[in-house]
Design brief:
The N and C termini lie far apart (about 140 Å). The protein has 2 domains: about 60 residues, no CATH class; about 280 residues, Sortase (Sortase, Chain: A). It is α+β, with helices and mostly antiparallel strands. It is built from 9 helices and 10 strands. The strands form 2 sheets. An 8-stranded mixed barrel has the order 1-2-3-4-8-9-6-5.
Length: about 400
């Protein structure tokens, strides 16, 4: 075949076009070209393996659930995500369960007090902080007026509980306790042979995170006890022994003992007895774990073998008390001990806040001079507490003349 000028021109044109196109190719294109790979075809195949669904739930499932073609790293990340989602769902479910249990417990609690002791105030509010007790010192923020609160003590109204009715509903009923004007207005239970039963069971015997107020098995409740020892949870909704914690001095206020000044007494009625009033005279923090220091024994003293034993017990309490009152004590007085959980250091350090009161004597006035209550900043603590606050105990400074039998 003859090779003419037109053929030569066409060949040169093709050569120049190929030369120009090669200049435009990137290194990546050249590398793929060497392996005879078609980028368009390759990408298309990959998209065919994981087609994008229009269903958002299917897309979510693909994004969360490990797939056959996922890399090991992708599978690990998806598994961690699934675990995190399960933990979140479990936490939310537990929170919802807790809130529902609290609501059920509060409803049952209110039903009890409405039937047996309807004089309580379920919508009670704590005394406001007395930020400025003297108009010459400061004024309320933005008001120009001094901040005051009513610190008049609230007297107890006598309890008149129908224990026959209570015992017919639950034979573990032992007594009733009330702090006038607060949500502490509760039946007291005691389970024979099981001191922990009412930690997580309510009056009806149903499981409950708030439980009930209960006494130690050591109490007889027959009129022979010299010290009633009661336990209860401090619930965030204000039920059980939540208000016992408010006897802790509020050192952020100019009036740290405001709650005590409004509520210096506690009412108690045992099954078979009359309504009694108890005057609060001490409150302290107790350690429960020996590895953190002294464990003060207040949980077994339901009776005292002698006057000396009683006196020493009161002295030990007053060494530890965070406040001093005008209430005197003597051998022969009946005591009331309220104990609840308290975590001033951390949740891992299981301590208790304990309030002690003594029964009003026959013929004695129920009134308390709350104006002379004194905050004790030198209360005896335990070793680990001292390590945390960097100090030590410097000895007792309580006026022992208040212990009439000493």
């Amino acid at each position: 075949m003859a090779y003419n000028k037109q053929n030569k021109f066409d060949d040169e044109l093709d050569y120049n076009e190929n030369k120009k196109s090669k200049k435009k190719l990137s290194k990546k294109d050249i590398a793929l070209d060497k392996f005879d790979m078609d980028m368009t075809t390759s990408v298309g195949k990959k998209e065919d393996k994981i087609p994008k669904s229009k269903n958002p739930f299917k897309r979510l499932a693909v994004a969360v659930i490990p797939q056959k073609d996922d890399s090991p790293g992708q599978k690990r990340r998806k598994m961690l995500l699934i675990v995190a989602i399960c933990i979140l769902i479990g936490t939310l479910a537990y929170l919802i369960w807790q809130l529902s249990q609290l609501a059920i417990s509060e409803r049952k609690h209110k039903n009890l007090w409405n039937e047996f002791s309807p004089n309580s105030a379920p919508d009670y509010h704590l005394p406001n902080r007395v930020a400025n007790p003297d108009a010459n010192i400061a004024t309320g923020p933005g008001t120009g007026e001094p901040e005051y609160t009513d610190l008049t003590p609230i007297p107890n109204t006598p309890l008149n509980i129908d224990f026959d009715r209570l015992r017919s509903l639950n034979p573990d009923t032992r007594a009733w306790i009330k702090i006038e004007g607060t949500q502490l207005n509760n039946v007291i239970m005691q389970k024979p042979g099981d001191d922990n039963y009412y930690l997580n069971h309510d009056f009806d015997g149903d499981e409950s995170i708030s439980g009930e107020i209960f006494s130690t098995w050591r109490n007889q409740w027959d009129g022979t006890d010299e010290n009633y020892i009661l336990y209860g949870h401090n619930m965030h909704d204000g039920n059980m022994f939540a208000y016992v914690l408010h006897y802790i001095p509020d050192d952020m206020s100019r009036e740290p003992m405001a709650f005590y000044k409004v509520h210096p007494t506690i009412a108690l009625q045992r099954d078979g007895g009359e309504s009694e009033t108890y005057k609060v005279f001490a409150g302290f923090v107790a350690n429960t774990q020996e590895e953190y220091g002294e464990v003060f024994n207040y949980t077994t003293k339901t009776n005292f073998n002698s006057k000396d034993e009683f006196n020493q017990y009161i002295l030990d309490i007053m060494d530890r008390s965070w406040f001093y009152t005008d209430v005197d004590i003597e051998y022969g007085d009946t005591l009331l001990t309220l104990s609840t959980c308290h975590w001033p250091l951390s949740r891992s350090i299981e301590t208790r806040w304990v309030v002690i009161a003594r029964k009003v004597r026959p013929g004695e006035s129920e009134e308390v001079d709350t104006t002379v209550v004194e905050r004790n900043y030198g209360a005896k603590l335990f070793e680990y507490y001292y390590q945390c606050i960097g100090t030590q105990w410097y000895g007792s400074n309580w006026d022992t003349s208040k212990l009439l039998s000493y």
